[in-house]
């Protein structure tokens, strides 16, 4: 702690989990803030509290880094739960092609804001919002405005439209990335801001070779990190496409690129990602639900890459990272146990622990998004993106193992306090600074308008689900 640092807030007496892989939890420690930065982590009582310093009582709390969702489609919040019993092609044909072209800019804003506040409520302080609803410049502006209004640390990942020409953008496409990305890059030119920008490239197998080359080089020209989605190694409904090999053909495997999903890649493709400084973002819950197969966790690890975690979309699954951490670990251990059984042998002691899974949900996410210097761990000099879990509850008491409590026991209901860049955005279990009824009303009215507009085009399975909620006119 430097002499010139003025202490503005202290988080007092908590069990501090820094997220640094080699550091054990620190019982009864204080976290000192000066503005938006962490300036000291010290045993409780070692320093006296200045009179003007705000005090957050954490004596019955785990103090941990904010969780990081490395891949989410916040504009889909309006469509929550509509496709939980569908495989990915059904979702595309029965819902996305029916309703999504009708999204107005105000619908994008309502969904993005509601989704961002959901993240904060669940203890997620940073998100990469992979935005493929950019049907006009106004849609893009609405998305950015909602992220900025939310107070989240967010990476706005600019992708393509989902309009009435969707097949022309998402299937053997000869359309280059929308040129409006240049305008947005000027708008989000400050790479140190709370809301920054990335390039959301369509999956290599979804576009023609000339488009891949153009789009990747456009991202480099604009100085944007690439995050590529669209079923990278996902389900095999169309057979294997070897997307990483497609990129290798034109020397497009660049350091820092985020490859999303990666379930069914060939072994050499995992090696190519690791060898070129790429990152893998997995969405275990969504991937298993929509038919992509088992998550790429073990394949990534065995080929030298520690994946980041993401939730993908609440169209299919819950949007909290606690469930995602549990799905990651349970699917990994379940697969290892299954393989051991097939080999007629017992399971070896676990190599991957709860500490490793927490790292995937924090530090690995920060690394994938290029934010390791700002967030992902609790360290002096980093931004105060901090979550407090209330351990004085029947769910989490007594506190015996802070790491397993976070990864295997905690739920969003246990998130008591959230700080982003030193600012309290959730306190005593309640989000601050927003009329939540107005936010919920906004996204509900948007849903009603979209269903009224495009409901006749919905597939039968979606219609049945909506009928269960009272939309009996479909």
UniProtKB/TrEMBL annotation:
Cross-referenced Gene3D superfamilies: Metal-dependent hydrolases (3.20.20.140), Urease, subunit C, domain 1 (2.30.40.10)
Keyword terms, alphabetized: Hydrolase
Matching InterPro entries: Amidohydro-rel, Metal-dep_hydrolase_composite, Metal_Hydrolase, MTA/SAH_deaminase
Limits of the Amidohydrolase-related domain: 62-425
Pfam family, one: Amidohydro_1
Homology family: Belongs to the metallo-dependent hydrolases superfamily. ATZ/TRZ family.
Protein's name according to its UniProt entry: Amidohydrolase family protein
Taxonomic source organism: Mesorhizobium cantuariense
């Amino acid at each position: 702690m430097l002499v010139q640092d003025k202490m503005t807030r202290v988080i007092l007496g908590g069990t501090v989990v820094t997220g640094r892989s080699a550091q054990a939890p620190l019982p009864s420690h204080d976290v000192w803030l000066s503005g938006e930065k962490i300036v000291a982590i010290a045993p409780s009582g070692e320093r006296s509290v200045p009179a003007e310093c705000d005090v957050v009582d954490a004596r019955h709390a785990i103090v941990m880094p904010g969780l990081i969702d490395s891949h989410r489609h916040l504009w889909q919040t309006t469509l929550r739960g509509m496709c939980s019993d569908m495989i990915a092609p059904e979702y595309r044909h029965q819902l996305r092609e029916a309703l999504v072209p009708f999204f107005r800019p105000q619908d994008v804003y309502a969904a993005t804001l509601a989704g961002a506040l959901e993240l904060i409520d669940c203890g997620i302080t940073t998100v990469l919002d992979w935005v493929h609803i950019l049907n006009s410049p106004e849609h893009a502006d609405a998305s950015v405005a909602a992220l900025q209004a939310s107070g989240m640390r967010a990476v706005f990942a600019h992708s393509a439209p989902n309009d009435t020409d969707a097949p022309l953008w998402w299937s053997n496409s000869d359309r280059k990335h929308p040129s409006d990305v240049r305008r947005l890059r000027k708008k989000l030119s400050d790479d140190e801001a709370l809301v920054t920008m990335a390039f959301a490239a369509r999956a290599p197998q979804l576009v023609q070779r000339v488009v891949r080359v153009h789009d990747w080089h456009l991202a480099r020209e604009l100085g944007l990190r690439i995050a590529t989605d669209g079923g990278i190694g996902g389900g095999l409904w169309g057979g294997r496409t070897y997307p990483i090999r497609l990129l290798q053909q034109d020397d497009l495997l660049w350091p820092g690129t985020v490859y999303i999903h990666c379930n069914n890649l060939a072994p050499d493709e995992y090696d190519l990602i690791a060898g070129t400084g790429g990152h893998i973002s997995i969405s275990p819950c969504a991937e298993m639900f929509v038919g992509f197969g088992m998550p790429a966790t073990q394949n990534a690890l065995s080929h030298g890459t520690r994946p980041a975690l993401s939730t993908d979309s609440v169209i299919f699954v819950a949007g909290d990272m606690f469930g995602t951490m549990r799905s990651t670990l349970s699917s990994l251990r379940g697969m290892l146990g299954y393989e051991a059984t097939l080999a007629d042998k017992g399971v070896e002691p676990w190599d991957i622990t709860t500490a490793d899974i927490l790292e995937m949900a924090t530090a690995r996410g920060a690394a994938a998004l290029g934010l390791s210097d700002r967030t992902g761990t609790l360290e002096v000099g980093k931004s105060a993106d901090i979550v407090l879990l209330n351990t004085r509850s029947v769910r989490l008491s007594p506190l015996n193992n802070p790491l397993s409590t976070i990864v295997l026991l905690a739920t969003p209901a246990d998130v008591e306090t959230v700080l982003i860049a030193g600012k309290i955005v959730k306190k005593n279990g309640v989000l601050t600074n927003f009329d939540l009824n107005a936010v919920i009303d906004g996204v509900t009215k948007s849903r009603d308008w979209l269903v009224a507009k495009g409901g006749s085009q919905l597939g039968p399975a979606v219609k049945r689900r909506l009928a269960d909620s009272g939309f009996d006119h479909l």
